[in-house]
Design brief:
Shape: globular
Number of strands: 34
Structural class: mainly beta
CATH topology of the largest domain: Cathepsin D, subunit A, domain 1
Bound molecules: 2-acetamido-2-deoxy-beta-D-glucopyranose
Radius of gyration: 20 Å
Helix content: under 10%
Largest sheet: 7 strands, antiparallel
């Protein structure tokens, strides 16, 4: 949250430094196809029973439950609907965790962890704002420690966590993986939401954050011990038939976003197929883009795609993006190249204003957002104007609005951009981890 302190999130794992000082290598494969038919993920579990659901929702859940297994989790929203949470059970203990396609580890705060400020100064445990006291290793009958290793992760918004590593049984949305490796955090600099106790990362094994040795200060690339994240283990253990997972992130209503701490139904995380929401016929399937490592080989870390064109009123020819863009559920906003952000933000009525100190475009909460679409794999995906005006609270608890599409830096080699929740509200994103393809399907308007 270094840049977007106004309760927006940038949950992108910053892997051991060398991984990101790398060049983008465009996959030689073109768009695979458009209009591909994906099976609907068979089943569903409600995230919470605390809040009554509308009859339409109840009906849908009933239909989904008609199947034999339950592999769809309803996601909830926290922190002004800017984070997406799912229920998770680890070693028989229940928590809520942030759903993050921009990192790969699953981790929980451990009982008795030490909280630090982002400036690395010890602060009271409550200042990390986790939702529970944390995971209790001694209360799990299935936990197996991974001795002489450490967990060490940093995020792009300056949050960092370190801890120990173990294996346990993990269930999300009815999908159970045994002996899943995960982090038990003993030290954290974390801006929590008072509801979640950790995070579930869904990106590639290359981005996992476990190292040989018990001293996190000694971690280096050579000591990196890669492992399979939760969904990769599920596929390997044949706990799920099809090697896809899918996310449909609903936009919150403006009123709820400005008010609520927990919104119990904000979309779906689905395993084994496409998330169960209404879609149109517009869809495309594209390869995941890799990055060049220091050895010159191309490696996949994130769900990165090539954006062919960004279109908005008055957009000029310079609206291609050369570096890859990461589809990241853990980042609230879109981060696009400087020139595109500048031109786009000038088109709000009234225009958004850039506040240097905050490194953020602010916009009038009643502004009219320009139309905006992103072309990927030959298909245009429009971003609804409602997603481009993001309500937030300033330090005096006054409602302020920030533009949904912000400056992500110059469009040059080694950089990457982000299509965050602002974009993802408009599509279902389905990630095939065996073919390394991503299918984007336009959602019916809602
Ligand atoms: C974690 O890993 C990074 C390298 O990625 C290293 O610089 C740092 O010292 C490690 N330890 C901590 C506590 O951050
Ligand atoms: C960690 O490093 C030590 C010393 O190099 C080595 O003996 C050990 O096998 C490594 N552990 C793992 C899990 O790779
Ligand atoms: C949001 O909170 C304000 C002040 O607490 C209250 O006046 C308003 O009715 C709330 N709106 C909703 C939709 O809950």
């Amino acid at each position: 949250m270094a840049h977007w302190k106004l309760a927006t999130f940038l949950a992108i794992a910053v892997a051991y430094a060398s991984a990101l000082e790398v060049r983008h290598v465009r996959s030689s494969r073109a768009a695979v196809s458009s209009g591909i038919e994906l099976p609907v993920a068979p089943f569903s579990v409600p995230l919470t029973d605390k809040v009554p659901r509308s009859s339409a929702k109840k009906r849908m859940l009933r239909e989904l439950r008609a199947g034999a297994r339950s592999n769809v989790a309803v996601v909830a929203g926290a922190a002004d609907d800017e984070e997406y949470l799912t229920d998770i059970t680890i070693g028989g203990q229940d928590f809520k965790v942030v759903v993050d396609t921009g990192s790969s580890d699953t981790f929980l705060a451990g009982i008795g962890f030490q909280c630090f400020s982002l400036a690395d100064v010890p602060v009271p445990e409550a200042d990390c704002f986790f939702g529970t006291a944390g995971f209790d290793i001694s209360k799990s009958e299935t936990f197996v420690p991974f001795p002489d290793t450490n967990f060490n992760i940093s995020f792009a918004d300056a949050e960092f966590l370190t801890g120990s590593v173990g294996f346990d049984t993990i269930t999300v949305g009815g999908l159970t993986v045994t002996q899943q490796e995960f982090g038990v955090v003993t030290a954290a600099a974390w801006n929590g939401d008072t509801i979640s106790t950790g995070l579930m990362g869904l990106a590639f094994p290359t981005l996992t954050s476990v190292f040989n040795g018990t001293d996190p200060d000694a971690d280096e690339t050579a000591a990196h011990l890669l492992y399979n994240p939760f969904f990769f283990s599920a596929v390997q253990q044949k706990a799920v038939d099809a090697p896809f997972f899918s996310v449909a992130l609903n936009r919150g209503t403006f009123a709820k976003e400005a008010n609520s701490t927990l919104d119990p139904n904000l979309g779906f995380l689905a395993f084994g197929g496409i998330a169960p929401v209404a879609v149109t016929k517009t869809s495309t399937t594209v390869p995941v883009q890799g990055f060049a490592t220091s050895s010159g080989a191309s490696e996949i870390f994130f769900y990165a795609v090539d954006v062919e064109q960004v279109t908005f009123p008055g957009s000029t020819a310079k609206t291609t993006i050369n570096a890859p863009s990461i589809l990241d559920t853990g980042t609230t906003l879109n981060l696009v190249p400087t020139n595109i952000a500048k031109e786009f933000n000038a088109r709000f009525k009234p225009p958004a204003t850039f506040v240097e100190d905050e490194d953020t475009y602010f916009v009038d909460c009643n502004a009219i957002a320009p139309t905006f679409s992103i072309k990927i794999g030959g298909q245009e995906f429009a971003v609804d104007g409602r997603d481009q005006i993001v309500p937030s609270l300033d330090e005096n608890n006054n409602l302020v609005c920030i533009s949904g599409t912000q400056d992500g830096g110059p469009d040059e080699e080694g950089n990457f951009f982000v299509l965050g929740d602002v974009f993802l509200h408009n599509v279902v994103a389905t990630f095939d981890i065996s073919k390394n393809d991503i299918t984007l399907t336009e959602r019916a308007s809602y």
